């Protein structure tokens, strides 16, 4: 095993996990507070690390270059494979919708800041699909070229923010604690820890070495926790919980954490760095997910690898998410929240189900049952939240007077 392969695997895990979801995490977890959100990060990290290990063992037992769909077919049959197919498609569509919705106000603000030109929000929804849809159409090579540039810019803006924003942090904001409203952030946070889909690729890349695969997942996901923790401290330490420009108002409008952060920072250039950090985070995530969705649809519908087939795949990739975004004003946060329910089923419940025959001991079977129950519980909580069961708990933060 070459060291650069090992390091590359770690970066693939952290790079897959770190993305646009981090723009919604502070908004969803701000109600519970900074330290409770760190505890939630820790629980989600451990939960998904365990399911990743289950995933690694199932992949090893199936052998070859098995992907998620084929793994489900080999372990839980045609019915499980069909469920996996639907969940996978729902997840990718949810994420693409979230990125389109989250990018629109950021592009709108950035364009106005740079040029003074104001465009309507509905027009901003088409920026990602039209401009970067071209690279999706070009395939993996086209995405790879632009993604390298954007990842470099993302890193630069992140370093700038963690270097200058701490002086604006209000320590009292970080002391807020309210465990009762922790449910609001759970579906969004689970969306931020899903790296399992890349495990089949990693297994081939790392020669199916179980030990190195597990350590790659551990280290790569710990890097993610560290990055999220720093970002969480910056946003929750600068943006107040309530008020006209706050986490609560951002949650109500369905925006991203970068919007109030850029509005509250006194330095114009720092505010622009926050906006562009958000834009780069969304675009890099958007490129990978959209390419995966386009390829998935091409294979699923047996489209030809011609220009007509690629064009049909692009249309099928972007039209349904655009319809969702125009239908739901809180598109960014809502799409990620529902995406969280799909993630917990696809990357939480499903690996446990697939691994059932893999583990024979009573202790492991009980652990699998516990984690499947937790997965279903997260989905139930998300459904209850959408049905308005927790409105009274949120009322002190999102009432009109706040």
Overall description:
- With 402 residues, the protein is mostly helical.
- The chain has a single domain, classed as Amino acid/polyamine transporter I, CATH 1.20.1740.10.
- The chain contains 17 helices and no strands.
- The longest helix is centred in the first third of the chain and has 48 residues, at 68-115.
- It is globular.
- The mean pLDDT is 84.
Poorly predicted runs of 5 or more residues: none
H/E element sequence: HHHHHHHHHHHHHHHHH
Residues in helix, %: over 70%
Total number of helices: 17
Annotation, overall tally of beta strands: 0
Could you tell me the CATH topology label.
Answer: Amino acid/polyamine transporter I
Rg over C-alpha atoms, rounded to the nearest angstrom: 21 Å
Query: What overall geometry do the principal axes of the alpha carbons give?
Result: globular
- Seen as an oligomer or otherwise, the chain set is single chain
pLDDT average, as an integer? 84
Strand content: under 5%
**Class inferred from helices and paired strands:** mainly alpha
Largest sheet: none
Task: Give the secondary structure arrangement, pairings included.
Elements (H helix, E strand, L loop, with lengths): L2 H15 L7 H5 L4 H29 L5 H48 L5 H4 L2 H12 L1 H25 L21 H6 L7 H7 L4 H29 L8 H7 L4 H7 L3 H33 L6 H21 L3 H24 L7 H25 L4 H8 L4
Helix pairs in contact: 1-10, 3-10, 3-15, 4-13, 4-14, 4-15, 6-7, 6-13, 6-14, 7-13, 12-13, 13-14, 15-16
Summary?
The protein has 402 residues and is mostly helical. It has helices spanning 3-17, 25-29, 34-62, 68-115, 121-124, 127-138, 140-164, 186-191, 199-205, 210-238, 247-253, 258-264, 268-300, 307-327, 331-354, 362-386, 391-398.
């Amino acid at each position: 095993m070459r060291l650069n392969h090992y390091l590359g695997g770690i970066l693939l895990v952290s790079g897959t996990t770190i993305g646009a979801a981090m723009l919604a995490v502070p908004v969803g977890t701000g109600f519970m507070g900074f330290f409770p959100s760190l505890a939630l990060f820790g629980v989600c990290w451990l939960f998904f690390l365990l399911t990743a290990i289950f995933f690694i063992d199932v992949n090893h037992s199936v052998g070859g270059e098995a992907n998620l769909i084929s793994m489900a077919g080999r372990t839980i049959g045609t019915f499980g494979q069909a469920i996996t197919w639907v969940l996978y498609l729902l997840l990718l569509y949810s994420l693409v919708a979230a990125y389109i919705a989250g990018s629109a106000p950021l592009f709108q603000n950035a364009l106005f800041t740079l040029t003074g030109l104001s465009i309507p929000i509905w027009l901003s929804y088409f920026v990602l699909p039209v401009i970067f849809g071209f690279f999706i159409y070009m395939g993996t090579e086209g995405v790879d070229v632009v993604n390298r540039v954007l990842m470099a810019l993302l890193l630069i803006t992140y370093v700038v923010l963690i270097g200058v924003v701490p002086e604006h942090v209000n320590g009292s904001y970080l002391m807020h604690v309210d465990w009762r409203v922790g449910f609001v952030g759970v579906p969004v946070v689970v969306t931020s820890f899903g790296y399992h889909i890349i495990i089949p690729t990693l297994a081939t890349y790392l020669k199916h070495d179980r030990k190195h695969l597990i350590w790659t997942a551990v280290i790569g996901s710990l890097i993610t926790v560290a990055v999220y923790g720093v970002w969480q401290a910056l946003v929750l330490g600068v943006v107040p919980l309530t008020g006209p420009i706050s986490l609560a108002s951002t949650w109500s409008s369905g925006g991203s954490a970068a919007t109030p952060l850029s509005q509250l920072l006194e330095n114009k250039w720092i505010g622009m760095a926050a906006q562009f950090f958000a834009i780069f985070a969304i675009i890099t995530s958007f490129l990978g997910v959209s390419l995966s969705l386009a390829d998935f649809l091409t294979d699923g519908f047996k489209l030809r690898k011609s220009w007509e087939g690629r064009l049909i795949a692009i249309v099928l990739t972007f039209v349904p998410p655009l319809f969702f975004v125009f239908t739901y004003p809180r598109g960014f946060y809502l799409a990620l929240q529902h995406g969280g329910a799909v993630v917990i089923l696809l990357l939480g419940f499903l690996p446990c189900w697939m691994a059932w025959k893999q583990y024979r001991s009573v202790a492991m079977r009980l652990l699998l049952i516990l984690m499947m129950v937790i997965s279903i519980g997260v989905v139930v909580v998300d459904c209850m939240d959408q049905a308005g069961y927790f409105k009274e708990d949120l009322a002190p933060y999102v009432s009109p007077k706040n």
